Amino acid sequence: MSSNYPQDVTTTPVALVDVNKAKLPYMPLEVQFLIVNSVSEEYFPEAWFAFRLVCKAWKAEIEKTFLQKYIGKTYITLSNLGCRIRILECVAISRDRNNALFTMEGPKQALAYGYFGHLAKGAVTPPEADIDRIYHLGMIVGMACTDPKLEGIEIDFEQETISIPWIPMINQLLGDEVRLRRRAVKILDTGSQSRHPQTTVSRPDQSLLLFLPNLNTDKAMREMLLKIINRDDCFMLEIDSVRESRIRRQYTPSQHGLDAGLYRDIKRFQAKTPEIFRTRNYVAGTLTFGYRCQP
After folding, report:
1. Which helix (H) or strand (E) holds 87?
2. Whole-model pTM?
3. Pair (88, 126) in one structural domain
4. Residue 233 sits in which domain range?
5. Is residue 90 within 8 Å of residue 74, measured between CB atoms?
6. Disulfide check for 263: which of 15, 174, 197, 258 has CB 3.0–4.6 Å away?
7. Distances (CA, A) of 164 to 44, 151, 160
């Protein structure tokens, strides 16, 4: 085609076109969304990441599904050295659908304001709030629990709510859960658990899991063993490793070594990990892993 045209068009000779080649079947968008919406709670953590990579439409639909089914089951808890003192419930989504609103109304309100004010940039921290030994956990009931890094917090003292970007928080919650499930499967497939030398937290008295060979070939046996692995105290070593790996990626190393925030979060592992361990085991559905039980 002449170069006088705005764009040259490349044509393919008819002889080179394979008319017998099968075409990809077309699936109406409505049917695609039915598939996304039909994912059960058990499979949702992996589906969250897989579906969001398919295309923008699937990404928007899986996020919409989470808001419809699971945002009401999402909580932030405050604990003091392993003793839970406050639960914040998600009560609404912002108009732009970017932030989740958690209620601050209830007991220990000054302490909660102080803690989240400490995390929120520029927020006022009431002097009476003791936050030295307080930490938070995020939880999706029956699905995941970990200690996500909360950024972009805004406090509304008049409405008694805090606003948090919900997608980064859910990415951390479900990301840790997917890694922990894979760790459990790896322990089962290899027949043993190994220590992670890069983990800062030391649990020298914690024994390691060990299985006899040929126990993981039966589907029913695999499902039972996966439950045992997740419920055994030894699995706290995996929780430590997965969380520290994520936290280290979230902080930029300073010239003087460990950043103060990173050091603080790692230091609190000893108290956080047992609570995460107990919360994950509270609902048996979290430990089924049906999609991993094939021999």
Report:
1. strand 83-93
2. 0.78
3. yes
4. 175-198+208-292
5. yes
6. 258
7. 22, 7, 14
Mark whether 144 and 179 lie in a shared domain.
no
Could you report the per-residue pLDDT of 156-170, keeping only the tens digit for each?
Answer: 888 888 999 999 999
Span 240-263, pLDDT tens digits: 888 888 887 877 655 445 555 566
Q: Which residues, listed in sequence order, are joined to residue 88 by a DSSP beta bridge? A: 76
Cα 43 to Cα 29, 46, 202, distances in angstroms? 22, 6, 32
What single-letter DSSP state applies at residue 82?
T
What is the rounded CA–CA span in Å between residue 276 and residue 147? 8
How high is the mean pLDDT of the chain?
A: 76
Tally the domains of the chain: 3
Q: Is pLDDT above 80 for 126?
A: no
**Which three-class secondary structure state does DSSP give residue 290?**
helix
Distance CA 185, CA 277 (A): 17
Which residue, 153, 146, 173, 164, is CA-closest to 90? 164
Q: Which amino acid is at 183?
A: R
Q: What is the pLDDT of residues 175-208, one digit of tens each?
A: 999 999 998 888 888 877 777 656 666 666 667 7
**From CA 283, how far away is CA 272, in angstroms rounded?**
18
